[in-house]
Design a protein that fits this description.
Layout lengths: L8 E4 L8 E7 L4 E4 L4 E6 L10 E6 L2 E2 L3 E5 L4 E3 L1 E5 L5 E5 L9
């Protein structure tokens, strides 16, 4: 079970975007995430008339390592570590380590 999933709100804890908050757009692989508004770079793009894309310099969101983000806890308004516990009915659920509350998915 992944501790950080698509749609989660995260806080960047390391790198040039430290302190920024954003929503996870998707998981690129096991260790990398695309986070909205984080790790944006300028990319020189050639025009592609087949796809209707114009050329020029465009802003592109690049993946960030999951070790550089923490799940945002709305109760404490900070980044928080996440654990996984098994509920009475046998399902797995994520919880915040600071206050023990389950993560709302």
């Amino acid at each position: 079970m992944e501790k950080i999933r698509k749609g989660d709100e995260v806080v960047v804890i390391a790198g040039r975007d430290k302190g920024k908050r954003g929503t996870v757009l998707r998981r690129v692989d096991a260790a990398h995430l695309l986070v909205e508004g984080v790790n944006i770079v300028k990319k020189h793009q050639r025009p592609n008339p087949m796809k209707g894309e114009a050329g020029g310099i465009v802003d592109k969101t690049m993946p960030i390592d999951q070790s550089n983000v923490m799940l945002f806890n709305p109760v404490t308004s900070k980044g928080d570590r996440v654990g996984i516990r098994i509920l009475e009915d046998g399902k797995k659920a994520r919880f915040f380590k600071s206050n023990g509350e389950t993560v709302k998915a």
